Amino acid sequence: MHARNRLIVGLDIPTVGEAEKMVATLGDTVSFYKIGYQLAFAGGIEFARDLAKDGKNVFLDMKLLDIDNTVAKGVENIATMGMTMLTVHAYPKAMRAAVKAAEGSGLCLLAVTVLTSMDDADLLEVGYQADARTLVTRRAEQALAAGMGGIVCSAEESAAVRKIAGSDMAIVTPGIRPAGSDAGDQKRVMTPGDALRAGSSHLVVGRPIVKAADPRAAARAILAEMTSAL
Predict the structure, then answer these.
(1) Who has greater pLDDT, 216 or 133?
(2) What gap in Å lies between CA 21 and CA 189, rounded to an integer?
(3) Does the pLDDT value for residue 213 go beyond 70?
(4) Would you give the DSSP letter of residue 149?
(5) Contacts for 71-75 with beta carbons within 8 Å, 24 or more apart?
(6) Above 80 in pLDDT, residue 194?
(7) Which residues are catalytic?
(8) Considering 98, 108, 113, 137, which has the largest number of Cβ atoms within 10 A of its Cβ?
(9) What distances in angstroms separate CA 75 from CA 86, 100, 110, one per listed residue?
(10) Strand extents, DSSP E, the chain
């Protein structure tokens, strides 16, 4: 898979108008975009449909978690939108409901394990007794058993998850930061090249590109580093 198909630019942008300008600025350099809460709640759902119609790959980052029926009905509707990827929290019942609802659609369901903004101390604070690596690998095993298409984890856990997931499942890693860039609110980070070498299949990069003085140049630099690691 070419680096261009592995780079997912996070459109963590307040309005659809600004997102449209960013997509136009990036042009053919980028073919894959992530839409999360910020943009989704500003008209981003319809914008996601438009991106898909224009031939872009779209990762809808909704992190679904609810009772089985609610998750299933949400996935059924999303599966008709032309999205490439969708996130579901890695709870076994929710994952099984999502997988059943997405059957035959081609939608890649991603299991969210532990957010890259959390570390072991954060997990302890919310009641987990396991450290991040242990919890991630356990949830990866559950995602594989549920029939999910991929895992979302930090690149620090990619090698361990790849051993569990095998070669077919996607390993999508946020918290990607080029060398020398600010980690911001991310705690478990890695450079693009190191993440691919660790076993990640797709890299989500937001602020280092969309907040750059020259977003296209920033994207090209990251793609060059990714290409050298493949």
Answers:
(1) 216
(2) 28
(3) yes
(4) S
(5) 71/97, 71/98, 71/101, 72/97, 72/98, 72/100, 72/101, 73/101, 75/101, 75/102, 75/107, 75/109
(6) yes
(7) 63
(8) 98
(9) 8, 9, 12
(10) 7-10, 32-35, 57-64, 85-89, 108-112, 150-152, 170-173, 202-205
